[in-house]
Design brief:
Elements lengths: L1 H14 L3 H27 L8 H33 L2 H5 L5 H31 L4 H29 L4 H16 L1 H11 L7 H13 L2 H13 L14 E2 L3 E2 L2 H24 L3
Helix pairs in contact: 1-5, 2-3, 2-5, 3-5, 3-6, 3-7, 3-10, 5-6, 5-11, 6-7, 6-10, 6-11, 8-9, 10-11
Length: 279
């Protein structure tokens, strides 16, 4: 375990030197700009405190999730692929360190780097949304915590691709996987359009369900939104509760359970691939 922590620290330092981390700084400036625009608006019209609602908070959470996932995927793609290509992993693995520990150390290091940036974005987003009460901030924090699961899922998928391909190809396949999740809404709309007798097309609905399970974007969006809007705690959100969320459908217990299983299976698959790879 000590070796994993040391490798995670080294990976964290390495991640802060990459160009992708500079992209995170640029995104931070974007959130800072949104906050400045809010201050300018308040200076002209005066403050207007409004209770927390999905229409104000959901777009900010969606931006945070998406940008953090892209940042994590960009950092994860070259992590394994580059070391496999150069053979530098042999230097590390010559020491008492298994490939599973090596991968976990890399994974933790990148996740911590992205999480640190994500927290700063979240602070600026909360200020931009005008969340000045403890209950509002707590609800926002719950939704943001779900966003970290979103980041972890797609970062892990990219780790799997990085273990079997080049860094460029791993990045591209990771983005395709992310787009697959975003396509679910379009597939469901197509099912409604192509349906007959007032019933949606079963084939297109099946395609949407497959996309949802392979890339649980909508599941995590529903969980994040219902966590913010609902009054129950984050852990209680994983039992049947609340109803329809505008724009992304009805929340189900599976929406909270499957992404966690997806992450676990993805991490296990990445470890298996790394353990069996010869070069």
């Amino acid at each position: 375990m000590r070796a994993v922590v040391i490798l995670a620290r080294l990976t964290l330092k390495e991640a802060t030197r990459r160009r992708a981390f500079l992209v995170g700084i640029v995104i931070l400036l974007l959130f800072l700009l949104l906050y400045v625009l809010r201050l300018v608006s308040e200076a002209q019209t005066g403050p207007r405190p409004v209770p927390i609602d999905a229409m104000r908070v959901t777009p900010l959470l969606a931006m945070m999730r998406f940008f953090a996932a892209v940042l994590a995927m960009s950092m994860a793609a070259p992590t394994l692929a580059t070391e496999f290509e150069r053979g530098t992993h042999y230097v590390i693995l010559a020491r008492p360190l298994s490939r599973a520990e090596w991968l976990l150390g890399k994974w933790i290091g990148i996740f911590v780097a992205v999480t640190a940036m994500y927290v700063v974005w979240g602070i600026l987003a909360a200020l931009t949304a005008g969340l000045n009460e403890a209950s509002m901030l707590l609800a926002f924090a719950r939704g943001a915590a779900v966003g970290l699961l979103y980041v972890a899922v797609f970062m892990t998928v990219t780790f799997c691709f990085s273990a079997i391909s080049s860094a460029t190809l791993a990045t591209g396949m990771g983005y395709v996987w992310l787009f697959l999740g975003w396509s679910e809404g379009g597939l469901r709309s197509t099912a409604e359009v192509l349906g007959a007798g007032g019933r949606p097309s079963a084939i297109w609905l099946m395609a949407a369900d497959v996309a949802s399970f392979l890339s649980p974007v909508s599941m995590l969006a529903r969980t994040a939104t219902t966590t913010v809007v609902g009054s129950v705690s984050f852990l209680e959100r994983f039992v049947p509760t609340v109803g329809f969320v505008p724009g992304i459908g009805e929340w189900r217990p599976l929406d909270g359970i499957w992404p966690a299983l997806h992450l676990t299976l993805g991490l296990a698959l990445a470890i298996v691939i790394c353990s069996r790879r010869d070069v």
